[in-house]
Amino acid sequence: MEKPDTSTANPLGQTPLLATKLRRPRVRASIVSRPRLTEKLNTGLNRALTLISAPVGFGKTTLLGEWLAGAAQAVPIAWLSLDEDDNDPVRFFTYVVAALDGVHEGLGSAALAMLRSPHPHPPPTKTVLTSLLNELGSVPDDLILVLDDYHTIGAPAVHDAVAVLLGNLPPQMHLVIATRSDPPLPLSRLRARDQLVEIRSPELLFTFEEADTFLNRAMGLDLTAGDVTALQSTTEGWIAALQLVAVSLQERPEVASLVATVTGTHRYIVDYLVDEVLSLQPEEDRLFLLRTSILSEIGGPLCDAVTGRSNSAAVLMRLERANLFMTPLDDERRWYRYHHLFAECLRNRLEAEEPGNVPELHRRASQWYQRQGLVDVAIGHLLSAQDFEEAARLVEEHAPRLLGQGGIVALLNWANRLPEALVQGRPHLSVLVGRALALVGQPEASESYLQSAEGALAGVPQPDSQNLQGQIAAVRASIASQRTDALRTIEYARLALSNLPHNEPFIRSLAAFNLGDAYLLTGNVVPASAAFADAVNLSLATGSLHMVTLSSAYLARTQMLRGRLREAEQVCRRALDLVAELSAAPARTVPTLGILYAYLGHLRRELDDLDGAASYLGQALELGEQSGYVDVLAATYWGLAQLHRARADVQAGLAMIERAIDTVAEQSLTVMRRLLLAERADLLVALARLADAETWAQEHRVGEVSDFGLPDERECLSLSRIRLARGEAAEASNLLARLLGPAEAAGRFGVVIEILALQALALHESGKLALALSSLERALVLGEPEGYIRTFADHGEQMATLLRQVAARGTAPRYVARLLAAIASPGRSAGEAAPYHTRAIDRGTAKMQSGAEALTAREVEVLRLLADGASNQRIAEELTVSVGTVKAHISHILGKTGARNRTEAVARARRRGLLEQE
C-alpha cells in the first residue's frame, strides 16, 4: 500500500513535520458565499493583522477557506493550523518557517537555524526574530501568513514573539489569526493605528438569507420560509447547530417536531443534535466516528490501524458526502479532520460508552505514527493513553536528537506530563531532562535530576554507566560555563571527555567547546587551542555547521592571542570552505558565519590590509544585520572600530565601539562587554579624553587583581595606556612588567608583542632608552614572522621615533621600514591613492576640531554615487564589491563627516569641497 503523505521534511531537512498542518482546508462546492465578510477580509490586506475571533462552531476556518480561494487567491498564502504541541517556541517557529518555505523557498531558514543550533549560549528570541523579520522584508511581493486555531497557544514566549513580529511586520506582509478567544497581543495599539480588522461572533452568525441558502441549497432540504425562520431563530444563526439540524432532517424531515425539541443553551443544543446525528448512522459507522475521534487528522491507513478495519478510506469519503462535519485537508481526499465541536462531542460519547477502550486506541495511533517517523505525535498519544512507561521509553530514545535540534521546551513539556518518580527513576531520562533545564537557565532544578541519575547509576551496567557519568559531567560543565566559573568548567569538561565514548560526538563537541572557552577565559591559550580544534572535528562528525563555524572562530581568536596570525587566517578560510561545501545556502542556514568574516577583518587590519579588512568586515556586517546575531555584530563593530582607528579616524572608531557595547547591553555576555569597554578606554585615550577613561578604570577597579585572566589582562593593558598618557610612565612600566611574565608563560605571544611595544614607549618616557630599545627589538623579533603592523603603527609618531633608533642599530631593516611607512601614511592600504582630507567631527556636537582626517579614494567614489542617488546594490555593482562592503564604506563616511544619514553626508562633503571633481 502507498505510504500516505502525512509528513514533510522541514526546511533544514531534519525532523519530519505533519504536512496536514500546513495545508489550508479545501472549500466545498456547496459552500454558502458570504460576500459581506470576504469584502471585509479584503480590506484587511492593507493592515498588519486580521483577527477572526469567535467560539467553536462559528465557521471561522470555512470563511477563511472561501476568502483565500477567492479574492485573495492572487496573494501567496502560508497556512499553519496550530495545536497544543506548538507551545514550544522552537516547534512553533519550525512550522511557521515550513509554512513560509512553501511559499518562498528558504524563507526564514536562518532564523530557524539559530533556534535549532546546539549553541552553548543560545541566541535570545529577539535575535531570532530580527533575522526572520529581515528575511520577510526581503520578500518582494505581498504575503499572507494564516495562524488557525491560535487559541491553542498559551505559552507567553510564543505570544511575545508574535507580538514582536506584529510590531515590525514589513508592509507587504499580512498576518491572519483565527481563534476562539482574543490572544494576549497588542490589539488596542493596532486598533489605534488602524492596523487591525476584526470579525467576531455576531458577524459570523448566519442571516436568514444565508441560513436559507445553506439549508435548502447546500444541504438539499426543502424547507419553507417559516421553517427556516424558526430554525434560524432557535439556533440564533449558529452555523454548527444549523448543520447538525440539517443532517438530522436529511434522514427525518419532521421539521416542526425537531424545532420544538431544539431549545436551551448552545451546549445543550449540540449535545442533543449530536445524539440525533449518531442515532441515524449505521452501527458500524457510528463506532467508526467514535473511535477515530481521538485523532487530530484522519486518513484511511491511520484509521485502519486504530479501528482494525480495512476500508476506512471508503468510509471517510462516504461520511464526507453525508456532510458529517469533515473537512478535507488535501485535494485527493486522503486526509480530513473532524470539526472541532463535533470531535469534542464524539470524544465525550466515546469516554461514556467505551472508557476502557480509549487507551488502546491511543496506543494503536502511537504505533502507527512511530512507523511514519512522527515520534512527537506518537508520544502525545502514549501520554493520552497514560501509558507512561512506554512514553518514557520513547521520550528517552527521542530526546538526544530533539535536544540537538533545539527542542528543549518540548522535552520539558513531556517530562512534566510524566510521573516525576518515573523520570527520576530512569537515569538516562533524568540526565536528558537535567540537560534541558540547564539550557533554559534552571541550574538548581537541573542539578536535582543529575543527582537522581547519579543515585541510580549503581544499577546501570558498564560501559553505559561511564557514558552517563560523562553526560552528567558535560551538563555540569555547561552550567559552570554559564556562570563563568572557569575552574569548575575545566574540571567537569575534562571529566566528561574522559568518560564519554567516541560514538557521542555531539555532546563531546559541546564539552570540548566549553573546555576551550574556560581555558580561554583563564588565558591558557595552548590547551584552549587544542580543545577548540577537537570541538571543530567533533562538530564535523555531527554535521553541525553552526558548531563548526563557532568552534573555528574561537580557535582563530585563540591563535591570534598566541601570535599565530597566519594560522588563524587558515582556520577561518578552512571553515568557510567547509561550510560552502556542505551547505547549499550557508548565509541563511549558518548565522554564525559572520564571525569568521569578522575575525578575518581583524586579521587583515593587523596586517595593514585595510581594504581587505573593510571588505571582510562589510560581509560580516551584512550577515550580522540579516541575522541579528549578537556575537556577529559585536565582533564586527569591534573590528570596524579598530579599522577606523587605523584610518586615523578615532572619533568614528569610538562611535562604532559604543554600538558594539549597546549590542551586548541586554545580553549576559559579561566577558565580551568587559573587552569592549577596555577597547573604548583605549580610544578615549587616543582622543585625549583621559578623565572619561579614568572613570572607567576606577568604576571597574581595573588592576586590583593578582591573577590575570583574559578580560583582566585586556583591562590592565588599557590602564597602562591611561597611565602612559598621564605621564605616569614608571607606573605604566611596572604594570606592564606584571603582565609580561604570565603572558609569556601561557604562550599568549600576540599579547606579549603588544605589552613589549607599550613597555618600550613607557621606558622611553622614563628616560631608559637602552631598555626601551631592547623591549622594542624583542617585540619586532616576535612580530616580523607573522607580519604584525598595526600593533606598532597605531602608536604613531612616538613609536616611529623609537623605530628609527632601532633601524640605526640594524635591527630588522625591511620590517622597520614597513612599519615606518604605515605610520607615515595613516589610513592607506597598499596601492591606494592619496587620501582626501577633511576635518575631525566632535561626537555629539558635530563641532569642527583641529587636526586632519582622511576620506580614502574609494570612500569618495562611494560619496559621489550617493550624491547621484544610487542604492547600495547599484554602488556594489558599479564598484564590483559586495553590498556589505558598501555598507561598511558608508559607515566610515558617516563617522568621518559626523553625518547622521547619507543625505547629510553628501551635503557636508559638498560644503568641504570633497565633490568638486564631480
Care to describe what's here?
With 918 residues, this protein is α/β, with parallel strands linked by helices. The protein folds into seven domains: 195 residues, P-loop containing nucleotide triphosphate hydrolases (Rossmann fold); 57 residues; 102 residues, Arc Repressor Mutant, subunit A (Orthogonal Bundle); 73 residues, Serine Threonine Protein Phosphatase 5, Tetratricopeptide repeat (Alpha Horseshoe); 122 residues, Tetratricopeptide repeat domain (Serine Threonine Protein Phosphatase 5, Tetratricopeptide repeat); 206 residues, Serine Threonine Protein Phosphatase 5, Tetratricopeptide repeat; 76 residues, Orthogonal Bundle (Arc Repressor Mutant, subunit A). 65% of the residues lie in helices and 6% in strands. The chain is built from 48 helices and twelve strands. The strands form four sheets. The protein has a five-stranded parallel beta sheet with strand order 4-5-6-3-7, sandwiched between helices. Strand 1 and strand 2 form a beta hairpin. The radius of gyration is 34 Å and the shape is elongated. The protein starts with 6 loop residues before the first strand and ends in a 7-residue tail after the last helix. About 3% of the residues have low confidence.
